[in-house]
Amino acid sequence: MLKLILLCVSIAVSGYLAEAVLTFTTPEPEAIEDECRWVESRERCNVARRAGVAFDTRSVSEVIDALARRGVEAWPAIVPKHTAGISVGDASDGIRQLAGISNVMTVYCNAGEHVLYGSDEHGFRNPPGIHGMDVPEIVLIGDSFVQGYCVPSGSDIASRIRRVVPKTLNLGVDDAGPLLELAALREYAEPLRPRVVLWLYFEGNDLADLAWEKRQPIYPLYLKPRFRQRLRELQPAIDLRLEKIATALRTLSDQERHAASASPQTRHRYVLIDRLRAFATLSRLRERIHRLFLERPAFDEEVFRAVLARAKERVASWDGRLYFVYLPSWERFGDPGAANPHREAVLGVTQELGIESLDVGEVFEAQADPTSLFPLGDLHYTASGYALVGDAILAFLEARREPRAGEGR
Length: 409
What we know:
Strand content: 5-15%
Distance between the termini: 72 Å
Number of strands: 8
Largest sheet: 5 strands, parallel
Shape: globular
Strand order of the largest sheet: 5-4-6-7-8
């Protein structure tokens, strides 16, 4: 027992010594402007303020309150991955939703101005009534790149495609990886039997998301032929659950708002407490470990292949066609040595499965400055970048004589 205690003490001391070394040897991150310290998009705000560009520093809670004063009911965008372990104390705790609250104004993200959109009848970013169409021509599956992170409605990929093919459904979900995306396909695309399914894969974090998703109790079940939660039928329960979660989370937002309006002395105390908490929780050591071992997770080719094989099998069951779209990260052009090393392996799996693919990296590479398609302080694309992706997809589909405006099934 004594040896075990000494071992634990030794590990703890070593950990804090390492944290102390990292604290004093790692350069401090760029100072956060006072008015940016408590906003959600902190890095974007900081870049904008230093460049002299206006930035809305209101919290999501404040934006929702402002809309309420105008008689508009609004709720925050809710990321399914972030609510997986939250209990609201009723039967809905067993549900793993894939989108946000339905049929409401949704406060999404802050790109200088808060991006708002009206959610559809299942909480996705689409025009109202789109799930009730006879048969959508195209369905987009993916993460925040498909959802249209931090660009206004009309500038996302689905909206770009919708100009040519109006019956286009966006099933993009923030922080989704391959298993959660398979779930979205099984729950929401499969009942509609679309002619074309576009699977948009982002090389920056989809494999890391997959590493998390395969450890969850629900998402791997979607690899089974018949498993579904029947989420389309559970929307009222999903909305109630998400409203409870969003209301509870406002407490934290209110604390941030109080801190932002406090005196300089109070703000300094908050900063000091944050730094002490960071040291006590070994934040720099954990960040270093994450970067070395977790940021580039091993490519679980077996699970990835199983996901795409199941997706192809389901889409083929209604005589649809599945296409794979590979989305590049900033590192591919700005820091090639840090780019995801599994590109060839990922595309190799799609080739083995007979799934045609579009490599958007090649499209970006043909631009004069591919890095200009990424906003400062963010890993997503600019509106121009999203437009380029949408146009590349339309050209790809046209070459394969896939649906055009006005065509029926």
